[in-house]
Amino acid sequence: MKKFFSYLCIISIVILSFQSAYAVKKDNAAPIVIQTEPGNGAANVQTNKNIVIKFNEKIVKGNTFLRIKLADSPKKPVNITASIEKNSLVIKHINDLDFETEYVLTIPANAVKDASGNGLKKAFVLKFTTQSDTSEGIVRVFQDGKEVKADSSDNLVHLERDTFSLRFKMPIESTVQVAALDNQFDYDFAEKGMHLEDILYFTPGTGIATDGSYPSMYLNNEGHHYMFYSDDNDSRLTLISEDEDSIIDADWQINSLLIYDSESYEYSEYSFWDFPLDNIYIIVINDIDSDNIIDEGEYSKLVVTFN
Ligand SMILES: [Ca+2]
Ligand SMILES: [Ca+2]
After folding, report:
1. pTM > 0.90
2. Whether domain 29-130 has CATH 3.40.1190.10
3. By CB distance 3.0 to 4.6 Å, which of 8, 10, 35, 281 could disulfide with 181?
């Protein structure tokens, strides 16, 4: 009886292993890509997004796995790590990608294979283009003829105590609204997606009234500068350049600073040397679609600090 059971066991094991061997053997089909993130040919891809290539079945590393490559169009390779999560190949880039750049991901043939050892039949190529840099798109800071960019360590725009200018990139007949604030709290309040009516210093009717141009920057937590360029006679800005799509670079030269006192409703004017604050918190809005909402690409925020 004992012997009989032993035989039975062996027979079952043989049948089971035969079945599973047969089931694996039956898969002669190479893995197929069924979905990618971003899609092939996608534009406006975020510069910090991982790339995910999804296959129709579980995959493992193949013998050309290490040759998976991401490069920008002049073929400069990007530092990446590639890993497998179930049916997907996940490509992470160590640093953010460049803005407005076409990238090509190449997965060579046999870089991945299925459980039966069927390798990817031919190289899979994915192309996409990254988004433009909206943080720099609307406004830049100039001093002494040179652009001053935010310092990468503290994200502040470091200026000498002297005149400087804000240079706006804008459609020619549009307007920019510029708030200059004396504190971080009010600065942090304004975010993408908000209605201008909900932000005290951008509420309709809070444009700071002056005759014509603004030779100075008015720090006011309850109001904003209203800037436009239409032609040389009727403008608060100086035209620097205009491209074929009527997008202009227009300059606002700032020669002194004024601070609003909400108790006395008056401004006090300062030279750069007398100016009592270290930082100016600046928010620029160009509501291009006129819906009174701060949309992507319609705003910039920056903090100027004086050395
Ligand atoms: Ca297969
Ligand atoms: Ca808008």
Report:
1. no
2. no
3. 281
